[in-house]
């Protein structure tokens, strides 16, 4: 399956094209340049023949930066509509976990959109929990379910480990196995059922509970 992946959720902008039996084409732009350079990056990863070779589009829906997520989804929906292609939204949490051999270990994936604020997903054998907000509040909310030992992922992993401090947790930080993010998203989109409608693909900004900074 030939899939275009697009992402701007966790910093920068990336695009990837994956096809059966050939090496993927990827590009990653640093900084908040999705609006200025996103469409150019997409055009550069597409093979000769452009959209005629595509069968599906995958896009990172967040959590992540508000502006980046919004721009990536806007691009993806516009291209899917114009090229008459199915669209698959992929969580940033899933993109960070792609390709890692976790062996049913507890996993805490932490995504930051702005300083001091995270959206996390904790996955254990008992199920899945999510929390968003200031790091100290998120850790307090998760404390009853947080295992003694777990794997920590995501662009907010170092901040979360620092905030854990003396809690006594045995934490191992793992780097993502598939880069850039758009490549992981394209690979996941190739394996999943696309949305039945473009309207089903919605942003998960993650940090909404903490958008108002309290006055001191």
Indicate the topology.
Blueprint: E1 3-7, E2 13-19, E3 22-29, H1 34-45, E4 56-60, H2 66-83, E5 87-90, H3 92-97, E6 107-114, E7 117-124, E8 127-134, H4 135-142, E9 149-153, H5 157-164, E10 170-173, H6 181-191
Parallel strand pairs: 1-4, 4-5, 6-9, 9-10
Antiparallel strand pairs: 1-2, 2-3, 6-7, 7-8
Helix pairs in contact: 1-2
Count of all domains:
2
Class per helix and strand makeup: alpha/beta
Largest sheet: 5 strands, mixed
Tally of individual helices: 6
What do these coordinates show?
This protein has 216 residues and is an alpha/beta fold. The protein folds into two domains: 3-93 and 177-210, ATPase, nucleotide binding domain (Nucleotidyltransferase, domain 5), CATH 3.30.420.40; 102-173, Nucleotidyltransferase, domain 5, CATH 3.30.420. The protein has helices at residues 34-45, 66-83, 92-97, 135-142, 157-164, 181-191, and strands at residues 3-7, 13-19, 22-29, 56-60, 87-90, 107-114, 117-124, 127-134, 149-153, 170-173. Strand 6 (107-114) and strand 7 (117-124) form a beta hairpin. The longest helix is centred in the middle third of the chain and has 18 residues, at 66-83.
Keywords summarizing the entry:
10 strands; single chain; Nucleotidyltransferase, domain 5; 6 helices; 2 domains; alpha/beta; about 30% helix; five-stranded mixed sheet; about 220 residues
């Amino acid at each position: 399956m030939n899939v275009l992946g697009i992402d701007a959720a966790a910093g920068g902008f990336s695009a990837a094209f994956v096809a059966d039996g050939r090496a993927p084409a990827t590009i990653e732009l640093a900084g908040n340049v999705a609006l200025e350079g996103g469409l150019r990056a997409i055009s550069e990863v597409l093979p000769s023949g452009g959209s005629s070779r595509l069968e599906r589009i995958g896009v990172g829906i967040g959590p992540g930066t508000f502006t980046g997520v919004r721009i990536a989804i806007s691009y993806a929906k516009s291209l899917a509509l114009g090229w008459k292609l199915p669209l698959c939204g992929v969580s940033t949490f899933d993109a960070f976990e792609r390709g890692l051999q976790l062996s049913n270990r507890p996993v805490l994936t932490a995504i930051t959109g702005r300083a001091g604020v995270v959206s996390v997903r904790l996955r254990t054998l008992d199920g899945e929990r999510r929390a968003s907000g200031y790091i100290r509040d998120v850790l307090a909310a998760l404390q009853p379910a947080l295992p003694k030992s777990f794997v920590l992922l995501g662009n907010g992993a170092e901040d979360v480990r620092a905030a854990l401090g003396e809690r006594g947790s045995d934490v191992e930080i793992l780097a993502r196995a598939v880069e850039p993010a758009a490549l992981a998203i394209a690979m996941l989109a190739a394996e999943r059922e696309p949305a039945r409608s473009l309207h089903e693909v919605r942003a998960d900004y993650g940090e909404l509970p903490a958008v108002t900074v309290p006055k001191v």
